[in-house]
Write a structure and sequence with these properties.
Helix content: 25-40%
Strand order of the largest sheet: 9-10-5-11-4-1-3-2-16-17-18-15-12-14-13
InterPro entries: 4-carb_acid_sugar_kinase_N, 4-carb_acid_sugar_kinase_N_sf, NBD_C, NBD_C_sf, OtnK
Structural class: alpha/beta
Keywords: ATP-binding, Carbohydrate metabolism, Kinase, Nucleotide-binding, Transferase
Radius of gyration: 21 Å
EC number: 2.7.1.217
Strand content: 15-25%
Mean pLDDT: 90
Family: Belongs to the four-carbon acid sugar kinase family.
Oligomer: single chain
Distance between the termini: 20 Å
Protein name: 3-oxo-tetronate kinase
CATH architecture of the largest domain: 3-Layer(aba) Sandwich
Number of helices: 14
């Protein structure tokens, strides 16, 4: 019986959530969708876990596709025996006036027969807080933060209720901080009073500290469906489970691939360039000779490892926002984002063929493409690197054991590309667990 069945809107969001579930002592595995609605073979192959997170690629997909994939994931989790369900979206509420957060929540509430759920994007440990319904990124309101300039989902309002209302057919209500701080029973009473007699209700809840998350989860313990950022999982009761983070570590060559254009990733790239050998993708070369350009990068990295086994090549796509200001405009031309995503997948295949066993991938789209191209179907979650970022163990379609860290663009310390490797030190288990095989 799986205690929590979770649906995440991208790959790095799924690993963010899994990191926090493991941190609370829940043995967790991430499955990579979209799922096959005809069977639950992927879930059946994973045994002995407390939580399953299905990673979709639905954050910026067409609304109908995002809803369809989310419902298929829910049905799969139901067949696996999930007791409760968790819809995970970005802690900066990345979306448009049309979705996809609201439509997915509506569809899951309708499917599960639920009339009320909570909306909790707050993740205080990662600097995401909500006060009086307004979402902050650090000390800045969401619409005054770098998320205002996001190339796919520019966030131009900080009010979560105002962002959600155009996306949903449900009534949108709020529970503010004084009620949260009054404790779980006050939250439960407020949720009960906000239930709509003639429809669904989504309740946005203030979150300023990690302790608030515990109060919220305790106050919503009777709800079968909860929604939020990955931080909400930190509100689950912690349990002692020293083996929850057990994974197999395979020493060997390592590399960093960055397809994200976020401010935090650009800062991490700048730091990495000072300490690591680096190569910036040349989009013109990729457009005119994709295979040759990829082969040259793989050859460059292979030479580094031959000269120094501990070398960590950094391959990235963006230095500044100027790199994403212009895109392919010819009809039928491949967009720069799609080209970068395709290149990262091909480079990852070349690196693994060359012997890489430890890999950091930055960016949700890049992470999804890398895993798909390597034929990875699931990931066992291991030691945390920072809030929302973790190491994991995966097996490729060629039965290669690989340690991977999949980083959301906005997460991770500035020096992550040079310091994250130390988190694997001291883990010496050599036998694969059942969920890694």
């Amino acid at each position: 019986m799986v205690q929590w069945g979770c649906i995440a809107d991208d790959v790095t969001g799924a690993t963010d959530l899994a990191t926090n579930l493991v941190g609370q002592g829940l043995r967790t595995v991430v499955l990579f969708g979209p799922v096959d609605p005809a069977g639950a073979s992927a879930v059946d192959a994973v045994d002995g876990v407390d939580a399953v997170v299905i990673a979709l690629k639905s954050r910026t997909a067409p609304v109908e596709q995002a809803v369809e994939q989310s419902l298929a994931a829910a049905r799969l989790l139901e067949r696996a025996g999930s007791e409760r369900f968790y819809v995970k979206y970005c802690s900066t509420f990345d979306s448009t006036p049309h979705g996809n957060i609201g439509p997915v929540i509506d569809a899951l509430m309708n499917h599960l027969g639920e009339t009320v759920t909570i909306v909790v994007p707050g993740f205080p440990d990662a600097g995401r807080t909500v006060y009086l319904g307004h979402l902050f990124v650090g000390k800045e309101l969401l619409d005054e933060s770098p998320m205002r300039h996001h190339p796919l989902t520019p966030m131009l309002d900080s009010s979560v209720p105002r962002l959600l209302t155009p996306q949903t057919s449900a009534r949108v209500e709020q529970i503010t901080l004084p009620t949260v701080r009054s404790g779980p029973q006050a939250i439960a009473d407020a949720l009960a009073s906000l239930r709509s007699a003639d429809g669904r209700t989504s309740v946005v809840i203030d979150t300023v500290t990690t302790d608030d998350l515990g109060l919220i989860m305790a106050g919503s313990r009777t709800l079968r469906l909860v929604t939020g950022g990955s931080g909400l999982a930190q509100g689950l009761p912690a349990r002692e489970n020293p083996r929850a983070r057990d994974i197999t570590v395979r020493p060997g060559p390592r590399a960093v691939l960055c397809g994200s254009a976020s401010q935090r990733t650009r800062d991490q790239v700048a730091h990495g360039r000072e300490h690591l050998p680096w190569h910036k993708l040349d989009l013109n070369l990729l457009r005119t000779g994709f295979e040759r350009a990829v082969a040259d990068i793989v050859d460059w990295a292979t030479g580094l490892w031959a000269a120094e086994a501990s070398a960590t090549p950094l391959v990235y796509s963006v230095d500044s926002l100027a790199d994403v200001a212009h895109d392919a405009t010819d009809q039928g031309a491949e967009s720069s984002a799609a080209l970068v995503e395709r290149a990262m997948g091909a480079i990852a295949r070349g690196f693994v063929d060359a012997g890489v066993t430890q890999l950091i991938v930055a960016g949700g789209e890049s992470s999804g493409k890398v895993l798909a191209d390597l034929g990875v179907t699931h990931l066992r979650v291991g030691p945390a690197i920072s809030p929302g970022v973790t190491w994991g163990a995966a097996v490729t379609r060629d039965d290669v054991l690989l340690n991977v860290a999949l980083k959301s663009g906005n997460f991770g310390p500035v020096d992550m590309f040079t310091t994250a490797w130390s988190k694997l030190d001291g883990i010496t288990r050599e036998e694969r667990t059942d969920s890694e095989k």
